[in-house]
Amino acid sequence: MEPGPFLLVVASAFSHATWNVLAKKGEDKEAYMWIMVTTSLVTLLPVYIVILPDWSFPLAALPFMLVSAVAETLYFISLGKAYEHGDLSVVYPLARSSPLFLTILAVLFLNESISAWGVVGIALMVIGVYTIHLKSFNPKDIALPLRSLRERAPQYALLTALWTTVYSLADKMGVTTVNPISYALWLEVFIAPILTVAILWRRGKDTMIREWRNSRVNATAGGFLMRFGYVLVLIAMSRVQVSYILALRQLSVVLGAAAGVLLLREKYGRVRLVSSTIIFLGVYILAVLA
After folding, report:
1. Tens of pLDDT along 21-38?
2. Burial of 179 from C-beta contacts in 10 A (0-12 / 13-18 / 19+)
3. Are the C-beta atoms of 99 and 286 separated by less than 8 Å?
4. Which residue in 111, 112, 101, 116 sits closest to 289, CA to CA?
5. Residues 223, 45: contact at Cβ < 8 Å?
6. Residues near 15 by Cβ (< 8 Å), separated by ≥ 6?
7. Separation CA 236–CA 3 (nearest Å)
8. 68 or 97: which carries more pLDDT confidence?
9. Over the stretch 220-266, which tens digit does the pLDDT of each residue have?
10. Distance separating alpha carbons of residues 288 and 290, to the nearest angstrom
11. Contacts of 33 (CB under 8 A, 6+ apart)
């Protein structure tokens, strides 16, 4: 990979991990996600003005945008619930395990085949997802993850990964139909009102106002990082093979786990860093070698 796209994707990985660290610090996680989404369109307008020459609505992508907007709304809600119940160093890697679901769904419904490398990649991801719930690598703790999966945090994190799979499939079809950056802009226009209605119904106006007063600066910064990181990926996609980009971007899995351990002082750091690295290797193999 050339240095330019490489740096763009690495910057995107840092951006993604950073906004998740900020989101974990929010008082009401779902309302925090709402602030991020609704402010990101405004804060990113200067970027769109510079790089997007045509602002007409891409009607051909409308069905994909609707599916993606609903899935992303559910994504933000489930991610907020996951951070409400669990540590960043567990939730973030699990929430980023969507390539595992994508590969399995592609085999089941798109009649795609899995190579030997694909089997290795899936196996590594399953191992990483399992071991990230361990307190240590002591054999006596080997059954602990089975009990941990009954807890809310991993359940919501895996649900988040599932919603990521849904909107990723919709977005993949959408960006092959219209200009990717135009798609990204108008998709935000769809997500914001749907998420607003959902959070208003779930959390109430008073909670949303209180979270805005307490977290508007951090959440606005997080929203910019969230969407700007995605724009960086779209630019890189126009220059390099998509599979390489998606694989390298999963570096954020390790960065997110490291942030939870080093910045938020979460427990069982060695296990979680090793497990998140295993997940990253599994994703990389699926994207590049499978």
Report:
1. 888 888 898 999 999 999
2. middle
3. yes
4. 116
5. no
6. 225, 226, 228, 229, 232
7. 11
8. 68
9. 999 999 888 877 877 776 666 655 666 667 677 677 677 776 766 76
10. 6
11. 23, 26, 76, 77, 79, 80, 195, 199
Query: Which two three-digit tokens encode residue 176?
Result: 């092959």
Provide the domain count of the chain.
Answer: 1
CA 38, distance to chain mean position in Å, is: 17
Structure tokens at 273: 């860093």
**What predicted TM-score, i.e. pTM, was given to this entire model?**
0.81
What tokens does 223 get? 């929203």
Residue 176 near residue 110, CB atoms below 8 Å: no
Q: Is 112 left (phi over 0), alpha (psi -120 to 50) or beta?
A: beta
CA–CA separation, 47 vs 208, rounded Å?
27
Q: Which phi and psi (to 5°) does residue 86 adopt?
A: -140, 175
Give the whole-angstrom CA distance, residue 109 versus residue 105: 6
In one-letter notation, the amino acid at residue 97 is S
Supply the range of the domain harboring residue 232: 3-289
Long-range contacts of 194-198 (CB under 8 A, 24+ apart): 194/69, 194/70, 194/73, 195/33, 195/34, 195/37, 195/38, 195/72, 195/73, 195/76, 196/34, 196/38, 198/73, 198/77
Q: What are the structure tokens assigned to 269, written together?
A: 């750091």
What stretches of the chain show up as alpha helix (H) in DSSP? 3-24, 29-43, 45-51, 62-85, 88-95, 98-109, 116-131, 144-148, 152-175, 180-203, 205-237, 242-249, 251-262, 269-284
Return the structure tokens found at 130: 């399992």
pLDDT at 137: 65
First-last CA distance in the chain: 18
